[in-house]
Amino acid sequence: MTDPIVRPMTMEDRVAVMDLLTDSDPWKRLAYRAHDWDSYFTPLPQGRDSYVVVQNGRVAGIAVVRQKFLLGDYIELLAVADWVRGKGLGRQLLAHVEAAVFARTKNLFACVSDFNDQARHFYNKQGYQEIGPMPNLLIPGSAEILLRKTIGPARKS
User: Fold this and answer.
1) In a domain, 82, yes or no
2) Buried-state track 138-151, b at ≥16 Cβ within 10 A, e below 16
3) Mean pLDDT of the chain
């Protein structure tokens, strides 16, 4: 087994990333289908930083970061394949994202679905604070919860 590697996403990763997302929750529950991911990744997300984590030559995770969200950056997408969950790859991918983001800004935001207890626990363990819910943002009867991790205020007093 080789050590996981985090690197920028390329067009060659597109199909593997789309397969990973199409086959996993919470995306299935949120009604994202293959055609949604095809639209999102064709072309690769513009104006965003996109990374994959590769384990044993296979794409095992994806992160997409939008710069300049509120007073920081925003994790638009973070997902790890079912076959590597619990092995630390999500933590490694997130640490890579945080290192890049916190080199340029003080805040990093993300959203998780209120029903996604695994993701809520993951982000909490990594130091993210739940800011508040946004009801009925993606699907009826469910809320997206805004999260924030910070290394300090955006401005000095």
Assistant:
1) yes
2) eeeebbbbbbbbbe
3) 93
Determine, yes or no, domain membership for 100. yes
Q: What CA–CA distance (Å, rounded) separates 125 from 121?
A: 6
In order, the DSSP letters of 106-138 are SEEEEEEETT-HHHHHHHHHTT-EEEEEEETSS
Range of the domain at 97: 5-150
Residue pair 26/113 in contact by the 8 Å Cβ criterion: yes
Whether residue 130 is predicted with pLDDT greater than 90 in this model: the reply is yes
Whether the pTM exceeds 0.85: the reply is: yes
Name the percent of the chain lying above pLDDT 90. Answer: 77
